[in-house]
Amino acid sequence: MWEAIGLSGLEERLYRLLLRDPKCSPEEATRRLDSSHDLIKAALERLQELGLLESGGPHGVRPADPRIALASAIRRRRAELDRLALTAEELATDFQEGLLRTDPGRVIEVVEGSAAAGRRVTELLAGATREVLALDAPPYAATSTSLGAEEAALARGVRCRAIYSSIVLDLPLKLDEIRRMTGLGEQARVRPGVPIKLILVDGRTALLPLTDHEEGARFTSIVVGRSALTNALVALFETLWRESSPVWGTATAAVPGDGVDQQILELLAVGMKDESILRQLGISERTLRRRIAAIFDRLGAAGRFQAGVQAARKGWI
C-alpha cells in the first residue's frame, strides 16, 4: 500500500514508530527497528522529502499531520502518474514508428467476419479516452453491444462525432438510433455519400472494411495503428465533416402545435421524403399532407425550400 507513494518497508515502519513516539531519537529508532544508522538516516531524509516529517521536535524533525501530509503525497504521485501517462503517448508514437520501420505487419491487424469486427469496434470504443470519429453507411450492422460501448464512452466525457450517409433518412429505425445517441451527446451530421465505413479512436487507431460484403466470415476489415494512414483518415473525416450538414437542426424555439409538427419539420429539413416520414411517424398520408399545409401556412411559405428558410429564421429548426 505504501509503495503507492514511494515508501519502502523500512520507511513505513520508521514513520509509524515516530507517529507513536515523536521523541524517539535516530539512535533509538536504529535499535528498535533492528537497522543501521545509515539506513535510518536515509529513511528520515526520504520521509522529509515526501513531506511526512517536518522540522521541529527534540531531534530536529517530527511527524506532520498524516491527514495533510499523506493527502499532499498522494496528489504529487497522481501528478507524476499523469505526466507518465503523457509520456506513454509520446513513447507509443516512437513505438509505432519503430514498428513501421522494422515490422510493418504488426501495425495492421486483419479481422475476419462481421461478428469479429463488431467485437473489435466495442473494444476500441471501450478504450477511447478523448474522441471517437465515425463514418457510417449501409449496410448497417451496429449491435446493441457497440451502441452500449458508445453510450459508455459518451458518459466518460469522450467526444463522439459521426457522419451518416443520407440513406439514413429513409430508415426509421436508424433515425431513432441517431436521435437517441445525439440525445446522449453524439454530434451527428449527414451527407449524400459516405465513401467508406470507419471507426477512429483518439486519432491513433482505426477500423475500416477491406470488403463490401457484410455477411458472415467473408467480410474482412483491418485495424490500423498510429501511422501516416491514420493521420490521412483523420484528415479525410475532418474534410467530410466540414462538407456535411447536422442531422438535426439547433432549434431555439418550438414549432406551434402538439410536437408532431416539430418532428415533421425536422424531417422535412433533412430532406426526408413523404413516404419515409409516414413510416417514421406512423400517421396517414392525408394527416401528413394536412399538417404540412398547416406548417407552410404558418410560415407563409409556398414550398419546402422556402419553408426551410422561414423556419430557420424563426428558430424552429
Care to describe what's here?
By secondary structure, the protein is an alpha+beta fold. The protein folds into three domains: 102 residues, Winged helix-like DNA-binding domain superfamily/Winged helix DNA-binding domain (Arc Repressor Mutant, subunit A, Orthogonal Bundle), CATH 1.10.10; 142 residues, Endonuclease Chain A (Endonuclease, Chain A, 2-Layer Sandwich), CATH 3.30.870; 55 residues, Arc Repressor Mutant, subunit A, CATH 1.10.10.10. The chain contains twelve helices and ten strands. Strand 7 and strand 8 form a beta hairpin. The radius of gyration is 31 Å and the shape is elongated. The chain starts with 8 loop residues before the first helix and ends with a helix.
| Helix and strand composition category | alpha+beta
Examine the secondary-structure arrangement and name the CATH architecture of the largest domain: 2-Layer Sandwich
Radius of gyration, in Å, reads 31 Å
> How many domains comprise the coordinates?
3
Globally, the shape reads elongated
Write the layout of secondary structure elements.
Layout lengths: L8 H12 L5 H7 L4 H13 L3 E3 L5 E3 L2 H37 L5 E5 L1 H13 L4 E6 L7 H12 L3 E7 L6 H12 L3 E5 L6 E4 L3 E5 L10 E5 L3 H16 L1 E2 L13 H10 L4 H8 L3 H15 L4 H11 L3
Parallel strand pairs: 4-5, 5-6
Antiparallel strand pairs: 1-2, 3-9, 4-7, 6-10, 7-8, 8-9
